[in-house]
Amino acid sequence: MQEFDVVVIGGGVSGLRAAIAAKRAGASVALISKSHPLRSNSGLAQGGINAPLGKDDSPESFAADTVAAGDGLCERSVVQSFAREAAKEVLWLEQAGVPFNRDQVGRIDRRRFGSNSRSRSCYTDDRTGHIVLTVLYEQFQRLEIPAFEEWFMTSLVADGGECAGALALGLRSGKLDSFAARAVILATGGFSRMYAPSTVSIGTTGDGQALAYLSGARLMDMEMVQFHPTVFPKGQGLLITEATLGSGAQIVNQQGAAIQTQSSSPRSKLCLSIAKAAQNGGAPVALDLKPIGKEKILSFFPQTHELLRSVAGLDCTKDLVPIYPVAHRPMGGIETKASGETSLAGLFAVGECACNGLNGAGRLAGNTLSEAVVFGKRVGEAAAAYAKSAVKKNFPAAKLAEEEKTLAALASGDSSQDSLRAVHAELGGLMNEKVGLIRDAGGLKQALDGIAQLNERYQKIKVRNTGRIYNYELTTHLEIGAMLILAEVVTRSAQARTESRGAHYRSDFPNPDEANWKSHTVAKLSQGSTQLEKKPVAN
Amino acid sequence: MQVTFKVYRKDPEKDGKPGRSNYTMDVPDGATVLESLFKIRDEMDPSLAFRCSCLRGHCGDCMVRVNGSSRLTCTAKVSAYTQKGPEIALDPLRNVPVIKDLVFDWDAFMWNKIRAVKPWLESADLPANGETLVPDAAMRDLRKVMSCYQCGMCDEGCTVLPVDFDFLGPAALTKAYRFVFDPRNQDKKERLKIVEKPKGIWDCVHCYEADEHCPRAIEPTKRIVALRDEAFRVGITNDKVARHHQSFAASVKESGWLDEGRLAVESEGLTNVKGLMKLLPTAAKALTRGKAPIPYMHTKRPDADKIKKIFEKAEQVEK
After folding, report:
1. Is A210 helix (H, G, I), strand (E, B) or coil?
2. Which residues are B104's β-sheet partners?
3. Selected residues 250-269 of chain B with any CB under 8 Å from a CB in chain A
4. Tens digit of pLDDT for each residue in B58-88?
5. Residue A467 and residue B59: Cα distance in Å, rounded?
6. Which fold has domain A2-223+329-389?
7. Virtual CA dihedral for A448, A451, A452, A454, nearest 10 degrees?
8. Looking at residue A109, what DSSP letter applies?
């Protein structure tokens, strides 16, 4: 058994920042990550990281833009403190080694991005996530924090209403181990892989949210799933940063005529107008990057140019790039306070797996990375402080043997001829069609029935690979299980919200309902079934 | 189209011996190698192990050899590898310990070596105005180097690693470059001392294979050469290497070409008796095989004075 003050699950930007902060606060810390941290989904973020560093900018203006994008569901106090701290965190990243693009006088350059009213997205070409992740991992290594890389969390351990740690499977050793902790921080990322296509990496499967939910933590605003407007939708889906729009790219129809000039609209509005244009004309919508100019494309968007060539076979300095809105990042997640505390004592959550009310019903473009570092630091420190004051918990040693049995049971007995991949693909298609950009009561009902059927099929599929070392069939099985649990919560939450707001658009309730729905949806598991309640937005 | 994938196999939980499994399937137009691997694992052989993460060319995790060339399986289209026939061989990277099937030991191959160069910035506290002012040109070079997604292709192509697995290799040395040439870094010398040790920058044979292999045109060899120059510039280079360089340059400057006998002796050091003794067997062999003239005379080449002038001009420029 391993024992630490704070165990961080997830090696993306939030997790690394939290681990660094907790360690600096004096806690003994370990990081568990199912992939190598440098392979995590944070590395896919491109356009920028928001901070009000401009002379014409202020935390107040930044907060106002964040609240506007959140469309009525933001927790103002959370937004305000976030807007005040973002600049300091970006400067910390600069000091830690991020080679931000610079302006003429050598200050950190900023560009206009999405519905920000100011140029406030600091950036490193179009690889901001990759480089921020790299630098955080560098500083993480500097502190010599024990890292359990390629370890897959199989369970959270809760005892007497408190979180006492986690169980995880070492992919390389094939061994299951217990991680006792005074505080556990979940930084496990989003769940957009329940949609197909999506913009995310293979591991973005909501494992953290599902395990927290099963352990008694509550989930909030799960119906709010942000679609990204400018994605090459074939194959796995390739996101093209919205910063291209701010730099002059245009959304056009097949003839090359501009169909959407409001490049500063919130993502949800852009997505709907692209979907509408595609439906009306029946012709694909495209992104025209040519107005940016070849030289500028190659110097500011080198990765976009490279990946469009290798993934789509397109030269974006010459060709139009077909686009369609694709599932990107959820706003919803594990309900937390601004300190990251969840409804389960000793369990913290941060980043995309968490929901503290910062993003409301829609996330402002460029806020994902800022959120990850601002709250990563804050939650890391809060967890370290909690660990210092908390009494040592009893880690029920029997849990390890029970978990061994659970995993063995997944691999025993006859499997149906069905396939995990088919179940996952059908789930992705179903969610995209019925619980996607445009929803209605009939579709949501069909989605729930469909998820139930997929769940039945899933239960009959056994893990056929009996080996333990790098058994990706086993981890895939667990991930699909997590997504099926969360898909039901997302759909039920979408069903409950009989209005349209932010990323949640109901064609049968196309307007916001301020009188009844200025509330979060909160889901909790009660006697095996999902219970939903409203939680008013605090103002 | 029917394609047979011939996949390298090894199972540490069975006999641990390398083998190969063949999987034949219909591959749709435009399918990638990674999609085919998913299909194999899901429908044909759940025990097959391979890595991947981002699925679209961002992260470098799914690097394997496809018909002998290292490729990211997520962007490699099957149709690009079937022109000579409907068979595709999939193997782990060369010269790397394999754990299971296509999953190899990234730790031994690359991560541990990167860790050895102290891969983090040592920076001063925040200046009073809150941010370090630096010209974009200095940052642009670092951004280029940091666009590295650790795919390992440079190390895979390296010609030193197959004969000396302990060589730090181009990936780790390029990581070191990122700190040595970051104007915000406070301990450039210490970093140079790490990579200047045996198994570091002087072991590179500048074959330029790393540059050829790098999919992001980061030019690791060029970075290693820059580290060498910088080590010289700040005067912390290993004595023998410094003497070798000085002797090489002095010989060409004086005679127009290389005096190999002098180079060997001066590199060891004129007072280094032990080192000089080690040269004797080589010298004796060279003599008996007619590779060294007797008496040993090194003559100037024609127009040697012109070469000398080039040197003098270069020395002026350097000043």
Report:
1. helix
2. B98
3. none
4. 999 999 999 999 999 999 999 999 999 999 9
5. 27
6. FAD/NAD(P)-binding domain (3.50.50)
7. 160
8. P
Tokens of A359: 């993003």
- Whether A39 sits inside 8 A of B59 (CB atoms) is yes
- As a whole number of angstroms, the distance between CA A345 and CA B61 comes to 36
Of B32, B146, B182, Cβ closest to residue A131: B146
Using the 3D structure, point to which of B88, B104, B120 is the last residue of a domain.
B104
Looking at domain A231-326, its CATH architecture is Alpha-Beta Complex (3.90)
Q: Distance from CA of residue A99 to its chain's centroid?
A: 25
Whether B217 has its CB under 8 Å from any CB of chain A: the answer is no
Q: What is the pLDDT of residues A109-135, one digit of tens each?
A: 999 888 999 999 999 999 999 999 999
Interface of A with B in 460-479 (CB under 8 A): 463-465, 467-473
Which ipTM score applies to this complex?
A: 0.95
Chain A, nearest residue to B126 by Cα? A95
Total-model pTM: 0.95
Looking at the structure of chain B, the number of domains it has is: 3
Q: Which amino acid is at B39?
A: K
What one-character-per-residue DSSP string does A153-170 give? Answer: EEEEEEETTEEEEEEEEE
CA atoms within 13 A of residue B47's CA, in its CB half-sphere: 15
Residue pointed to by tokens 């910062």: A358
CB atoms within 10 A of CB B255: 17
A346: left (phi over 0), alpha (psi -120 to 50) or beta: left
Mean pLDDT by 10 residues, chain B (319 residues): 97 96 96 97 97 95 96 95 96 94 96 96 75 92 96 95 96 97 92 93 95 96 96 85 88 92 88 88 86 80 93 88
For the A400-508 domain, the top CATH level (class) is mainly alpha
Classify residue B26 by burial, with Cβ atoms within 10 Å: 0-12, 13-18, 19+. Answer: exposed
In this structure, which amino acid lies at residue A478? L
Indicate which of B27, B114, B131 best probes the interface with A, i.e. most A CBs within 10 Å of its own CB: B131
Judge contact between B114 and B188, C-beta under 8 A.
Answer: no
Q: Provide, as residue numbers in chain A, all residues whose Cβ is less than 8 Å from the Cβ of B52.
A: 202
Nearest-CA neighbor of A359 among A74, A50, A82? A74
CA B168/CA B186 separation, integer angstroms: 23
Residue type for B226, please?
A: A
Alpha carbon A452 to its chain's center: 24
Contacts of A20 (CB under 8 A, 6+ apart): A136, A139, A140, A143, A145, A376, A377, A380
